Structure formats: structure tokens, C-alpha cells
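User: Teach me something about this protein's shape.
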Amino acid sequence: MKPQLTKPQINQLYAFVQKKGVKYLDVQIEIVDHIATKIEENLVIENEDSADTAIAESLKKLKKRDFKPIVSEKEKQAKRLYRRLWWMAFKAFFRLPNLFFTCALTGVLYGLFYVKGVAFFIYDYSLFVLLGAVLYSSILFYRKIKMRYTLSFNRFLALE
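Assistant: First, the predicted structure itself:
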């Protein structure tokens, strides 16, 4: 039978990984899974009786610098994904419905400034135009927040 680590031992690995500076949950899960697999393999190969000694020996071998390349690579991946999603949202803004409403709002503002005069616009329509612009931009913003795309690159706040 293959030995398995207990829940407190796995929690000990999570605490160790977080203490070494890994603050993202998905990176912690990958590293802990890798370490736990190595420990379980060592228990089978070396026929050790105590998992705690195998954990202590494995953790002694790991340095903080061993985790930095993994974390930096995950951060690069997340930045690339966010950048791609941002450009997709930016390009989507210039598609037909959004472009039409932007041009219409610009035309209304142009008409109010140059046809009616600035003073008339400031005193009578400034509140309505401001509320309309805020409403329009908030609708676009919240629609983009509810995108189908999700990232698991979140901070694990339960241990902080």
C-alpha cells in the first residue's frame, strides 16, 4: 500500500510554502502537490517508518530561491492573459453598438456646446449629460466585469 500524507502534514507543507514567499493559491497547490508526491515516493523507496522525518528532510533541501522562478513564471503567464483580455475588451468597445453610442453622445455634446452655447449647456444640461455618461460607462464596465474569463491566480487570504 502506498503511504499517503495526512491532512495536518499537508497543511504543514502549505505553511512552509507560504513562509517561503509563495502567496498565490494556485502556485501553492502546484508546489505542495509536487513536494507531497516526492515525499510519498521517498517513503516507498526508502521504506521509512515516519512520514514526519521524510517531510523534515525534504523541506530542509528546499530554499526560498527554488520557488522564485516558479512564481515569476506564473506571474508572467497571468500578465499575458490579462493583457490579452484587456485588448479583447478594448477592441470590443469599437464594434458597432458601442461605436454608435459613442458617436451619438459625441454629437449631442457637440451640438450642446456649439449650437446652444456653453453657458446654456453648463446651467441646464450638465447634470443630465454627466449622469448619462456615468450610466453608459458603468454599464459597459460591469458588462466587461462579468466576462466568461476567469483566472485562478488569486491571493490565498485565509493564511495571511
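Now, about its shape. The first helix runs from residue 7 to 19. Helices lie at 7-19, 25-46, 51-61, 68-93, 96-114, 118-145. If you'd like, I can walk through any region in more detail.
User: That's plenty for now, thanks!
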